[in-house]
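Minutes, project check-in
Item: structure for the 370-residue chain
Input as provided by the requester:
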Amino acid sequence: MGNGTRYTVVGAGHGGKAMAAHLSLKGFEVNLYNRTGENIAAIKARGGIELESYEGGPHGFGGLNIVTSNMQEAIEAADVIMVVVPSSAHANIARNAAPYFHDGQTVILHPGRTCGAIEFSKVVRDTGCTADITISEAVTFIYASRSDGPAQARIFRIKDAVPLAALPAYRTEQVLKTINPAYPQFIDGINVLHTGLNNMGAIFHPALTLLNAGWIESTYGEFQFYIDGVTPSIARLLEVLDRERVTVASALGIRAQTAMDWLKMAYTTSGEDLHEAIHNQPGYYGIKAPNTLNHRYLFEDVPMSLVPIASLANQYGVSVRGIESIIRIACIIHRTDYWRRGRTLRKLGIDRMSVSELTEFVSEDYRDYY
């Protein structure tokens, strides 16, 4: 059971509630932060979260140490801060938490999407924070989970292996050692370019949402997203987007996982093609589609996943017409400019770096560059 590591989970949505409850059931001291107090009032009143799960999975009442909408209260008493919010909120979390960080703390973005740790660290530095903290990111969220009520959560599946990398990369080993008693599933993700470019949400979420837009709007998401929503034709498009992502990674000297490789690693599932592999994944059954197009699969994954991948592609000479098409369609549907809102290399402060300089930036002490 738990050791002396104190956790704070930032975010009380589908994922944050599942993680907070599960950590508590493992015996760790857990704080839960959410920006809006009324959204965690029931959890605070009950003193914790009731967790349900798949057969044989974790379940029971996870009691929490602190449930708060006060960032200082949540952050100061933690050794490890688990950030479980849409990556479009990472910059705000970094800005609001920065005054309360202190030396020795570890921040993990679940997940970072693409360039999440780079953005988070830049925002923290820009506030003037000098605390020696380690910022890291997971390549994907470890749970397939949903909120079942105000103080209830459900876990459909826990991934078998999830790569994680720290910024800079030489600190990854210490992060993994710190969280291993809670999460032995996390493995060395090499560096944050690897985790960011192995971002499968970038491939699955926006395209799958947009290509099922009519069905989502007419049924309010009353269908199985990854099962009913992934037809052979849609799977073929996902395969093209996936090849573009892998090509961008190759331009940076990175051998990225294909979507097929990732499904095998995370879920031990396989198939003749992506359509079959997705349908062979039991954890995807029962997960409903978004009930609206105003969903994080678009407002998060387009600017925080696809835009930085396309920005890297443009910087280093890779054609990504499929990815750019998905970005453009999302801009039209949401009547916004995701290029302006997204994580471009210029906004991240890395637009003047060669491939070798960028690799050194994420591997060594990035603070030397500022």
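Outcome recorded: The chain has two domains: 6-192, 201-359.
No further action items on this chain.
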